[in-house]
Amino acid sequence: MAVTDFQSQMPQRNNDLGASRRQRALGEQIIQFILLVCAVVSIGTTIGIILVLLQETILFFQQVSPLEFFGDTRWTPLFASQRFGVWPLVVGTVLVAVGAMVVALPLGLLAAIYLSEYASPRLRRLLKPILEILAGIPTVVYGYFALTFVTPLLKQIFPGTQTFNALSASIVMGIMILPTVASISEDALSAVPRSLREAAYGLGATKFEVATRIVVPAALSGISAAFILAISRAIGETMIVAIAAGQQPKITFNPLESIETMTAYIVQVSLGDTPHQSLAYKTIFAVGMLLFVMTFALNLISHWITRRYREVYE
User: Worst-scoring range by mean pLDDT, 17-21, 40-44, 294-298?
Assistant: First the structure.
């Protein structure tokens, strides 16, 4: 009798199991579709940005020769005597980015080495979120911090420092991107197998020697990628340089002078004083396209370094 009841219940159990499997398969398909939509939206947005920049840049170069854009050394598109040499903006951008790297790269790498090799697990869990809080501070706050605190301090040290200068923007920008360098570098250092460290300790190496001669070289691809990503972010930063660096496009390598970066110029023109569809307004798209090409090239280099020099441990 019990066998008969069990056999009679088997089809119902099979039906319930089949329905459960169909529901799970349907849920997986829905999740897959949502992820696909998100990926398509991301790609479509990127393509749309590129097309808009490309279209407006072509219209700009129909009126301004690329030879003048890349060959002239004066940038005065908002003046009566218009000149369209982009090099003052490029030099200002590179000057600020290099200064930020001088601050962020060594400090970020040292912080990553400490978190990975010296800090206890409990201290690491405490310090790393605190360090990453710097990445959550609005960049406009960094800009006013550079203008109202760092610049007066620099004037006391270097009396010839101008009110708007590249050095204060560089220092504060370096502080801003420091969490990017430290976090990604620490992840790369932590990914190095423990066996390499233990082998070095077995040969009598000190902790400092293990960190600098074993762990850092083994994680060099990830550290290099962190450096390049930080550089690309520094090049694309807007509010810090718009507030603290000034709006004087000129070719200078003196960080105590006022300069103008590519992003700061885009902000200046986008404020609304320049008529739309004018030649001066179209310059922001040409500058934006050049900025996009620069950051895209840096991202490609970062990706290539990561794949080319990545160490695979088994």
Answer: 17-21
Q: What's CA 80's distance to the chain center, in Å?
A: 36
Q: What is the DSSP string of 4-72?
A: HHHHHHHHHHHHHHHHHHHHHHHHHHHHHHHHHHHHHHHHHHHHHHHHHHHHHHHHHHTTS-HHHHHH-
Assign 58 a pLDDT band (cuts: 50, 70, 90).
very high
Counting Cβ atoms within 10 Å, is residue 250 exposed (0-12), middle (13-18) or buried (19+)?
Answer: middle
What contacts 146, CB < 8 A, 6 or more positions away?
168, 169, 171, 172, 240, 243, 244
Most confident of 5-9, 144-148, 199-203, 217-221: 144-148
| Cα 250 from Cα 253, distance rounded (Å) | 10
The pLDDT value given to residue 12 = 59
